[in-house]
Design a protein that fits this description.
This protein has a 4-stranded mixed sheet. By secondary structure, the chain is an alpha+beta fold. It is 40% helix and 26% strand. Helix 2 packs across helix 4.
């Protein structure tokens, strides 16, 4: 299985959802991410990172609040936003880097 750093270095855009179990807005994001994945398929990789279980990952990307979404491509951060992001906006962002 590929490591996190290997996955985000790929050509395919990788959307990382930094979330927490106790976070209300994070629960709103879950079905939105499912819809984005079902519409974009193999054009995007979506990873969910629980900040309570993976504090090093959250710290290394200066994640201060959840949910925080970060889009990587070729190992670089292309876009990031905290809070709930609507499906159409997410798809536009991902498509602009595909």
């Amino acid at each position: 299985m590929a490591t996190f750093s290997e996955i985000i270095k790929g050509q395919t855009p990788v959307l990382v959802d930094f979330y927490a179990e106790w976070c209300g807005p994070c629960k709103i994001m879950a079905p939105i991410l499912d819809q984005v994945k079902s519409r974009l398929g193999d054009d995007v990789i979506i990873l969910k990172v629980d900040v309570d279980k993976n504090p090093q990952a959250a710290n290394s990307f200066q994640v201060r609040g959840v949910p925080t979404l970060i889009l990587f491509k070729n190992g670089e951060i292309k876009w990031r936003q905290s809070g709930v992001v609507q499906q159409n906006q997410l798809e536009q962002v991902i498509n602009s880097f595909s």
